Amino acid sequence: MPTLASMATPEEGPVPFEDALVVIGTNLLSSSQHREEEHADLVATLPSALEANGVKKLRLYQGFWLRDIHVPAVIALQRRFQPRHDDVIVASFPKCGTTWLNALTFATMARRAYPPAGADHPLRRLNPHQCLPFLEGLFQGGREAELEALPSPRLMNTHMPLPMVVPSAVPGCRVVYVCREPKDMAVSAWHFLRRLQPDLAFSVVFESVCDGRMAFGPVWDHVLGYWRASTAMPDKVLFLRYEELLRDPADKVRKLARFLGMPFSAAEEDAGTVDSIVRLCSFDHLKGLDANKIGHLDPLLPVPRDALFRNGASGDWVNHMTAEMASRLDRIVADKMRGTGLNFR
Ligand code: PAP
């Protein structure tokens, strides 16, 4: 049985989290849901609303709507999460390209231990989300010891707004963020939520996007937090767009590698490593793998894994929104973005 320390060296990049768990010996289900009762008095005082599918309760905490189970997780995270200087956090608003960026960042960072064209690459047997610990999920389950046990460099994933993950003004680690055109995000969110509730009307999800009342929302405040940090500290926060990844994934993978301090060498360029990473993480390739077709996302979230690989394109909003709906959301977003240097036109 390997030890965690023997599974990776800093040069080899992050250990796939699912593999690390085998060594840590954690049973996902037995240790989950520890923290829901913590801070119950505080949670009960927070403004509340129902999520669009009417199932989960949201609470407004520090300016963001969070699922109520995530409030104690965030409090614990803010108090106890200690970033290491070589940590990397992949961050996003849900349905904006998380799965893809998880895969690309893992494949880029781990390319020495796992050549991307290799038949035994972890992304050929694991869903991209299984390769990275999900911060709020771990803190929700009282499982932060697993994070501590991971060898450096750690690669982690979150949907949390920046100040909740990295409260200090200058992040003590690197953060890679991906945003997406909000109308396409809304459409993707609706399709995803429908897997749990098939009769959910698109208009209900659309209204919650316009109101900012989605889990981890408002989306504009989420995006702007990371955007501003990326302009103030470009060496700490890399800001990517889903649409740019679609347009030129190889260019963005090179940019990602430079940001991570591990640019592709001439030998790697000659060997086609960038293209191998792009191919490995492409929508069509990942969608076809058993790891992404069979099973559910999480023992606690009964959504089939294939829900993460629906369409993988931009502009699908035209098939779901009237012109009035589109211009209404465009106006709301443009208003929020005014003067920030960021836009979705
Ligand atoms: P999450 O927040 O639940 O993790 P996330 O991965 O952020 O979801 O978003 C899912 C979207 O990314 C889906 O978009 P769609 O509904 O418009 O199709 C999904 O298809 C897309 N996606 C997932 N993997 C890839 C990929 N490798 N390349 C391009 N798009 C992808």
From TrEMBL:
<dbReference type="InterPro" id="IPR000863">
    <property type="entry name" value="Sulfotransferase_dom"/>
</dbReference>
<dbReference type="GO" id="GO:0008146">
    <property type="term" value="F:sulfotransferase activity"/>
</dbReference>
<dbReference type="GO" id="GO:0005737">
    <property type="term" value="C:cytoplasm"/>
</dbReference>
<dbReference type="Pfam" id="PF00685">
    <property type="entry name" value="Sulfotransfer_1"/>
</dbReference>
<feature type="domain" description="Sulfotransferase">
    <location>
        <begin position="86"/>
        <end position="341"/>
    </location>
</feature>
<comment type="similarity">
    <text>Belongs to the sulfotransferase 1 family.</text>
</comment>
<protein>
    <recommendedName>
        <fullName>Sulfotransferase</fullName>
        <ecNumber>2.8.2.-</ecNumber>
    </recommendedName>
</protein>
<keyword id="KW-0808">Transferase</keyword>
<dbReference type="InterPro" id="IPR027417">
    <property type="entry name" value="P-loop_NTPase"/>
</dbReference>
<dbReference type="GO" id="GO:0051923">
    <property type="term" value="P:sulfation"/>
</dbReference>
